[in-house]
Amino acid sequence: MLGLYVHIPFCSAICNYCNFNRGLFDAALKERYVAALLHEIRRSGGPSTALGAGGAAADTIFFGGGTPSLLDPSEIGEIIAACRGAFALAADAEITLEANPETISPERLDGFRAAGINRLSYGVQSFRDDELIRLTRLHSASRAADAFQMARAAGYDNISLDLMMWLPQQSVAHWLESVDALIALGPDHASLYMLEIYPNAPLKDAMARGRWSVAPDDDVASMYLSGLDRMDNAGFLQYEISNTAKPGRQSRHNLKYWMDGEWLGFGCGAHSTRHGVRWKNQSSTEEYISAVTTGGQLETERRVLSAEERVEEALFTGLRLNAGLDLEAVKMRYGVDVWGQFGGELQMFVDEGLLIYDGGSVRLTRAGMLLAHDIMAVFIRSSVR
Ligand code: SF4
């Protein structure tokens, strides 16, 4: 089934490390944007669209951003209703809202739930105030904990929390404080990411001014491994390099990206993949609104993925999962004998304890996940036939 992604590009402030497609909240612009989104969704579900997606079955909606929780609950409700009108949305669809703690109140949580949201994903990043201040986040650690408790009180039984490691001035002990604080709250899902500081990030300047540094590589490995160990001990099951969940609480939407699934993205900069074709909407909010409302060029990149690209991507994304690559499934779908073709190069990673090959599947060990890019590079160096 399809996943539907809805991009909301507005934030109350711009964090100093953020490289996403977002801009400052503007109420008038938001109104025009939501109107355009509704138009795009209704139109793409039509029976005569090039997508052939009209009435197609979908079982997830994911509001990502930006800060989707800045929308009014009534707007979220309208967008979900448009998705229901355009697609055959499963009765048990997973409908996720990314939320920032400072945007949340009991009333808004009730409104989002009434609108159809059944999963919340809070961007917490850290449970230490000094780290949140360095990242220019608008919430404190206690505000994040309150937002979590408010959501539980409002009846949300599927809540994810995001944390970031390798923050400026963060030690292994500081990182584990955040992991422990997350575990103490008892979410259903957690994403543990490494901060990547892009070249022109304002955070770089702040680090230079403040003489802040990041932990050495050995400590990052320790953060990753010890953080996940603690999650294991608390009853979470890691299912992807950066994601861990209570049993049955994996993100159904994100699994589509990693399991060779199909999805449609709505809104500025949103990507879609369907029937082996990939495209991306205009990134600029204004250009997106203009394209949708005037019938202009909405897609900026559209290409038919070659057989080689499809296989490479299936190998890359499949290896991100703890379950690894099902070699028989890849052979059935793409006619590629993964071990026959790449086994020679992959064997050294098996010998080093970074990869497990059991005849039916290939999967990364946790130590291998730290070097995933190097291991996956094998699939690029050797051309897929
Ligand atoms: S809230 Fe999220 S999307 Fe918005 S600026 Fe901060 S990191 Fe970026």
Can you tell me the overall shape?
globular
- Give the total of domains: 2
Physical arrangement of strands within the biggest beta sheet: 9-10-8-7-6-5-4-1-11
What do we call the CATH topology of the largest domain? TIM Barrel
Bound molecules: iron/sulfur cluster
The major pleated sheet works out as: 9 strands, mixed
Tell how many strands the DSSP assignment holds: 17
Features:
single chain; 385 residues; alpha/beta; TIM Barrel; Arc Repressor Mutant, subunit A; 2 domains; binds iron/sulfur cluster
Provide a compact summary of the structure.
With 385 residues, the protein is of the alpha/beta class.
Describe, in plain words, how this protein is organized in 3D.
By secondary structure, the protein is an alpha/beta fold. The protein has 2 domains: 2-257, Aldolase class I (TIM Barrel, Alpha-Beta Barrel); 307-381, Arc Repressor Mutant, subunit A (Orthogonal Bundle), CATH 1.10.10. The chain contains 15 helices and 17 strands. The chain has helices at residues 27-44, 73-86, 106-115, 129-134, 141-153, 172-185, 202-210, 217-233, 252-258, 285-294, 307-320, 327-334, 338-351, 366-370, 372-381; strands spanning 2-8, 10-11, 23-24, 57-65, 88-99, 119-125, 159-165, 189-194, 237-240, 243-245, 263-266, 271-274, 277-281, 299-304, 325-326, 355-357, 361-364. Helix 2 packs parallel to helix 3 (106-115), helix 6 runs parallel beside helix 8 (217-233) and helix 11 packs antiparallel against helix 15. The mean pLDDT is 94.
